[in-house]
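Researcher: Before we compare anything, I want clean individual predictions. No alignment, no superposition, just each chain on its own. First chain goes here; please echo the sequence and then give the structure tokens.
Model: Echoing the first chain and its structure:
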Amino acid sequence: MSKGKKQDTTPLLNEEILQYPEVRCIGDDGTQHGVIPSSEALNIAQEEGLDLVLVAEQANPPVAKIMDYGKFKYQAEKKRKEAKKKQKSIVVKEIKLSVKIADNDIGFKVKHARDFLAKGNHVKFRVFLKGREMGNPEAGKEVLLRVWEMVEDIATMEKAPFFEGRYYNMLVVPKK
């Protein structure tokens, strides 16, 4: 984790803008008030019952907009939530196998894998190689290929069987 300070993203409001001698002022409806003293811009905002919000601090002179800040914050949060809702999270389910697994056990685990694939999840098959099985790692690949034959009608192999540490892995995803 970074220990840096979190940047404050809230813009300057109303009296906080008075630190700038003049600002380019834009009305709530988009009207240009031009470059005016910040105190005058604040008076215009207060007459309309709205807030003066600094939108571009780096500009020369800084740009301030007259708006309802509460409404602005609400709409920004609403947009952020809507964007988050449209994101799709990928769930990877892992199924562990062994080299000496029986056929009925493979069938049972493949049945679960088919359920996961039907729900749209990715499935990672792992064959753990114990002790002397490390002497013949191709046995793990053979188990994965047997499993692949049972799920190839509803899945696509994203990563072919590959050896990693003491595991032989294979990743399958549902067909579109």
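Researcher: Okay. Second chain, same rules.
Model: Second chain and its structure:
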Amino acid sequence: MNGLLNSYALLMAPPAGGGGAESMLPTLFTFGAVFAIFYFLIIRPQNKKQKETQRMLGTLKKGDKVQTIGGIRGVVVSVKEDSIVVKVDDNAKLEFVRSAISGIIDGKDAKDTKESKKAAANKKDEAEAEVAE
């Protein structure tokens, strides 16, 4: 039992050289590695997304189809310095703060989606016709 306590005391004792820079090097390396991981996995992508959002908000113009962070979709009627007026229906216009716009909707993407649904339906009809024969 006495030998076990002596070996435990040796494990808890500081290094023989009094510590110094040699014991700080692994600690600094660990902190540097953790910071690098945080930077590349969290900070950098967040900054990149924020820059893209600011660029998108800066390029908004009349006629753009947009979606708000609340899910409302409409067409930009007018652009003011700190807000945007969006037409959501024939007689309904809403004014939003610029930061409430989550993105610009491309009409081309909507067409592609409709075309892909039609193509999928045609394939399904053809497959059912082959099974029926």
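Researcher: What stands out in the second chain?
Model: The helical segments are 2-12, 21-58, 107-132. Additionally, The mean pLDDT is 80.
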